[in-house]
Write a structure and sequence with these properties.
Number of strands: 4
Pfam families: CobD_Cbib (PF03186)
Function: Converts cobyric acid to cobinamide by the addition of aminopropanol on the F carboxylic group.
Oligomer: single chain
Shape: globular
Helix content: 55-70%
Strand content: under 5%
Structural class: mainly alpha
Family: Belongs to the CobD/CbiB family.
Radius of gyration: 20 Å
Number of domains: 1
Pathway: Cofactor biosynthesis; adenosylcobalamin biosynthesis
InterPro entries: Cobalamin_biosynth_CobD/CbiB
Largest sheet: 2 strands, antiparallel
Strand order of the largest sheet: 1-4
Length: 312
């Protein structure tokens, strides 16, 4: 099957996979649990950390290279093995596999659970790395809105984009990069050197997706001056996270960011959004952030279908 593919066929094939993956994720969400690819990647990172950790950039580079090799190599092997099957059978199998690496339904449900919880501080601790025990309800709601905006890029738009361009191997490659950053990419004493490669290359991998996500958020909320997100988005310590967060703040007329506790330490973060909008975040702001779920999914499906149609 693969030997007969042209570059045009490759992008059509990836577009069809993306369509199926978005639909399957929307209908069923996560279903592999302990055998989920991200769980397996995380287990490898944990094993490497336990046996080969050193407080050095070089050892962190070896972690990154080994994780990328195993993740992308596994995906290439799966695609190669499935190439011996007829297309009508291999295509839905790859769609199913790809859907496990998109997480819009799980993200939506998790953020919605914070809005519905009697104790939002308890509900939000599964979503964020910041200290939830010292949060007020306002802090928990703010964290939920920020998490939804930021993870629209990390868990939805970026995986979809890498799937379109590089297929299943590119999708798993991105998830490996993202998982490495989430596990060792922190500026702590333990990971400052060891996690530097993982953190920097995650920034590179997310540069375009984060800005694309911000533009999509602005457009689905009919914020036609869609470039406005950049002004305060660039003030975030991350070169990427601030842009979708600012876009969501502008779209839902609230101020996000500000001083936040991470690992017991107060971090002075910039505010994102219009200065005149309220900093007090309520469940109404979460409802606003989640309200364009259908439009975002439809936009991903429409772009994927348009690529397939134009290239066919």
């Amino acid at each position: 099957m693969l030997a007969e593919f042209s570059i045009t066929d490759w992008f059509i094939f990836n577009s069809l996979i993306a369509i199926g993956a978005v639909i399957i994720d929307r209908l069923f969400g996560e279903f592999l649990n302990r055998r989920h690819p991200v769980v397996l990647i995380g287990q490898w990172i944990t094993l490497f950390n336990h046996n080969a950790y050193r407080d050095s950039v070089l050892r962190g580079l070896w972690l990154w290279l080994s994780t990328i090799f195993l993740s992308a190599g596994s995906a290439i092997f799966i695609v190669w093995a499935l190439s011996f099957l007829p297309l009508w059978l291999s295509l839905p199998i790859i769609m199913l596999l790809a859907s496990t690496l998109l997480a819009h339904r799980m993200l939506f449900d998790s953020v919605q659970a914070v809005a519905q919880a009697d104790n939002p501080q308890q509900a939000v601790k599964y979503l964020v790395s910041r200290d939830s025990q010292q949060m007020t309800k306002n802090d928990a709601y703010k964290a939920a809105v920020e998490t939804y905006a930021e993870n629209l890029s990390d868990a939805v738009i970026a995986p979809w984009l890498y799937l379109l361009i590089l297929g299943l191997p590119g999708l798993l490659l991105y998830k490996a990069i993202n998982t490495l950053d989430s596990m060792v990419g922190y500026r702590t004493e333990k990971y400052e050197k060891y996690g530097k490669v993982s953190a920097k290359l995650d920034d590179v991998a997310n540069w375009i997706p984060a800005r694309l996500t911000a533009v999509m958020i602005m457009l689905v909320f009919k914020q036609w001056r869609f470039w406005q997100f950049y002004q305060s988005g660039r003030l975030h310590p991350s070169p990427n996270a601030g842009h979708p967060i600012t876009a969501m703040a502008l779209a839902c007329h609230c101020r996000l960011g500000g001083p936040t506790i991470y690992f017991g330490e107060l971090k002075q973060k910039a505010y994102f959004g219009r200065p005149q909008d309220k900093s007090e975040i309520t469940t109404l702001n979460i409802t606003c952030a989640l309200s364009k779920r259908n439009q975002i999914d439809t936009l991903l499906l429409a772009i994927s279908a348009l690529i397939a149609i134009l290239l066919s």
